[in-house]
Each structure stands twice: as structure tokens, then as C-alpha cells.
UniProtKB/TrEMBL annotation:
TM annotation in the entry: 408-425
Protein name in the entry: DUF5711 family protein
InterPro entries on file: BEACH_Domain, PEGA, PQQ_b-propeller_rpt, PQQ_rpt_dom, Quinoprotein_ADH-like_sf, WD40/YVTN_repeat-like_dom_sf, WD40_rpt
Residue span, PEGA domain: 333-400
SMART domains: PQQ, WD40
Keyword Translocase: no
Length: 431
């Protein structure tokens, strides 16, 4: 999960809690979402997870307390931890709960809230994830390692990624383990510890999730970008909320995705990129979670509330597998990109295409993000609209970094000259 939480004064939290308690449950429902209940504490909630079957909700925040609730909002137990919660996860039927703290401790609890084991791992355990059956546990910390444990506490493997590991995820059977880190990178590993692929992002990766079946990876970043990948590391689609994305979650086959962000909203998307609903809270959404079937969502906000929502979706109890690759629409165009000087690295929608000049086939008819990079030159970025099936040609003259510096110095020189003339005139007037 995202490192650090926007700590507010206790008085402000208390006012927010008091205000939200005055509002009836149904009033806050978003577009066709139904608020089943909310759980309120004087804390900044940092994360929440629903058990895969949708029957239990795990939550924790800056007050260093872990809470387990049932699907009706009844508190089953609460446990004091050694520090504020960073990230957490829960297995099917609430059998196991795992949590990482900002004091560097990883805990595993049983269904009754008793500690099975705890481990010290660096200064901060940013995130923790557990497979549906509870057999495997993944964790990431500030020591730069991605860890995989068995539920007995035995270390299966650890991989040195370098830098802070902000977020981790594991699919239902533990076959895939994903991680996102501060240094703009997403990783996917298999159960044997083999790295399957890496994917570079434009900013820090604050949260990551693998769909229960393992076919879809979704990641949210500090710059507001959300990218959806298949399990081969190919980009399926993405969006940009233009505000920090703190949490993401996926249902089976990536059919439904939810996104929590710093604009106080929890959003639900379909796999056709359509925003289904946007649910408001009174604070930044720090964590959220979908049940495996996409029918329920829990939302953790730093307004002091956990929201539990019934969603307007309809997924069969045994969903049919969706294809793990992109089905290209019939209407596609072509794009040719030239650069001066030639040889610039060409990226389309954050995917490396090759060196310019480059002719790109099968470009979908929509907006695309074009980026060119070349050593010694300023990065070029622009939106490109492919609106018909005719070939579109774009020629870009890159700006040398030195010329930009010279322009900047010339500008400063002119400003200094103007100021000097002004001071001379003022001095003569005074005389």
C-alpha cells in the first residue's frame, strides 16, 4: 500500500466522524451502489480487504488496531498491533488474516484473532497479501525484498528488487505474485520465484492487484495513472485520474475493477473501460477491495469510516473465462512517427514500440499517448487521436536540452536588463 497516511488532528477526525454518523446509510449511495453499513472509528483507515467469499471484512489504520467484521458489519474482534497498519489481506472464510505495520512487523492471525506468528522485516512492512486458501503469504518492505512465506511461517523465497516495495498481491492459488515499487516498476513472479516480466511505469506504484484467476494485473500510481495488464505483461488498457491512486482491486478475470484515490472517490470500472459508478467519501480513499464475484466492495477512508457496498453487477457464480489477450476491434488505423534526429525511443500508451521512424499497424481508433525519448533532448509527449482508418503521420523535431538552457539564460538576462534599466530610471527621478 501507499507509504504514509495523511495524518490529521484528532479534533478534525472527531468532527468528521460525528458528521458522518448523522447521515443515514442510504444517503451516501453512489450511482446504484447500496451502502449496506459503515464502521466508524476515530482513526485514519489505511487499508481494508474483503475475504474472497465476501463474508468478512478486515480493516486497520493509524491507531495501530486491526479489526475483523462480518458481512453484516458486526465487529468480531479487534487486536492491538505494534504500529500503524500499512497493508493487510484476508483468506477465504476469514480463516487467516495477515497485516504489515509501519514498525516493520508482519503478523499472521487465525480466525479468532490469535497470533499464529509474527516477523520483523526492515523498518516498514508496506504491504502483505495471502492466497485464498491461506497457504501462501507475500510481503514487501523497505529493505528492498519481495518475500513469499508458507502459512507455517517458513520462507519459500525472497527476491531482491531494490528500493521500497510499496505493494504486493497474490492470486487465489498462489501461482502468481506481483509487486510494485517506488522506482516506477511492476514485477510478476511465479510460485517458484522465477521473474516472469517487469513493466515500467511513469511514477511510483502505490498499489497492485492480481485477479483471483491470475489473468489480469491492475496497478495504480502516484501520478493518477492506472494500468491494466494481462499475465504476459501486455498492456490491455489504462486511465488517468490526474490524482494519486492509492488502492486498486480486481474481480474474477478482470471483469470488474475498483480504484480508490485522493479525490475522495471509490470508482468501479468494467473491463471495457467503462466507469460504472463513483462512490463519494469524506476523505481520501486509502484502501478498497472487491469480493471475487465483484458483488461487494469495502472502502477504507481517512474520514474514519469503512464503507461496505453492494454493487450493481451481475457475475455468474462460476464465471466463464475471459480471454487473456486484447481482442482488436475491426476499426483500426495506422500511425507513422518520424523524429528529428532519427532514432528516438518511441512509446505508445506507455508501451515501447521501437526507434523512430516507425510505422505502427493496428492502432485502435481512440486517443493515444505518444512519447519520444532521446539522450540529450527533452522528452516529447503528446496525445494522438486516431479517428479514421487512414494512415496518420506525425513528425517531431526534438528540442536539445542545451538550447532550452540557453533560452532560459537568455530570458534571465533580459529580465535582469529590464530591472537594471528600471532601477537607473528610478534613481535619476529621485535625483
Amino acid at each position: 500500500m501507499i507509504p504514509g497516511t495523511n495524518n490529521k488532528k484528532i479534533l478534525l477526525i472527531g468532527i468528521l466522524v460525528f458528521f458522518t454518523l448523522l447521515i443515514p446509510s442510504g444517503v451516501l449511495a453512489g450511482d446504484d451502489a447500496t451502502l449496506l453499513w459503515k464502521f466508524t472509528k476515530v482513526t485514519n483507515f489505511a487499508d481494508t480487504k474483503i475475504s474472497p467469499d465476501g463474508n468478512y471484512v478486515l480493516a486497520g489504520g493509524t491507531n495501530a488496531v486491526l479489526y475483523l467484521l462480518d458481512s453484516k458489519g458486526n465487529l468480531l474482534w479487534e487486536k492491538n498491533l505494534d504500529g500503524p497498519v500499512s497493508g493487510l489481506s484476508i483468506s477465504d472464510s476469514g480463516k487467516y488474516s495477515v497485516v504489515g505495520t509501519k514498525k516493520g512487523t508482519l503478523y499472521l492471525f487465525d480466525s479468532g484473532g490469535e497470533i499464529i506468528w509474527q516477523k520483523s522485516m526492515g523498518q516498514v512492512v508496506y504491504d502483505a497479501a495471502i492466497s485464498s486458501g491461506g497457504l501462501y503469504i507475500a510481503a514487501g518492505s523497505n529493505d528492498g525484498y519481495l518475500y513469499l512465506f508458507k502459512n507455517e511461517g517458513d520462507l519459500v523465497w525472497k527476491q531482491k528488487l531494490g528500493g521500497d516495495i510499496y505493494c504486493v498481491s497474490i492470486n487465489s492459488d498462489g501461482k502468481y505474485i506481483a509487486a510494485g515499487k517506488k522506482l516506477f516498476t511492476i514485477y510478476l513472479y511465479n510460485l517458484d520465484g522465477e521473474r516472469l516480466w517487469t513493466y515500467k511505469t511513469d511514477d511510483q506504484v502505490f498499489d497492485i492487484d492480481i485477479s483471483p484467476d491470475g489473468n489480469t494485473v491492475i496497478a495504480g500510481c502516484a501520478d493518477g495513472r492506472v494500468c491494466v495488464l494481462n499475465n504476459s505483461g501486455e498492456r490491455l488498457w489504462g486511465t488517468n485520474l490526474m490524482v494519486s491512486v492509492n488502492s486498486v482491486s480486481s474481480s474474477y478475470y478482470g471483469a470488474y475493477l475498483c480504484i480508490g484515490s485522493n479525490d475522495n472517490y471509490a470508482r468501479l470500472y468494467g473491463n471495457n473501460k467503462t466507469e460504472i459508478l463513483k462512490y463519494p467519501t469524506f476523505g481520501n480513499v486509502r484502501g478498497l477491495s472487491l469480493s471475487d464475484d465483484g458483488m461487494r466492495m469495502s472502502v477504507a477512508s481517512n474520514d474514519g469510516n469503512i464503507y461496505f457496498l453492494a454493487l450493481p453487477v451481475n457475475i455468474p457464480s462460476t464465471p466463464e473465462p475471459l480471454p487473456s489477450c486484447v481482442v482488436m476491434p475491426q476499426n483500426i488505423g495506422k500511425l507513422t512517427v518520424n523524429s528529428t534526429p532519427a532514432g528516438a525511443l518511441l512509446y505508445l500508451d506507455n508501451v515501447f514500440i521501437g526507434n523512430a521512424p516507425q510505422r505502427i499497424e493496428n492502432v485502435t481508433l481512440e486517443n493515444h499517448c505518444l512519447m519520444l525519448k532521446l539522450d540529450g533532448y527533452i522528452d516529447y509527449m503528446s496525445n494522438v487521436i486516431i479517428s479514421d482508418e487512414q494512415e496518420k503521420t506525425i513528425s517531431v523535431v526534438l528540442t536539445p536540452k542545451t538550447s532550452q538552457n540557453q533560452t532560459y539564460l537568455s530570458f534571465i538576462t533580459i529580465i535582469c536588463a529590464i530591472i537594471s534599466v528600471f532601477l537607473i530610471v528610478q534613481k535619476r527621478k529621485n535625483n
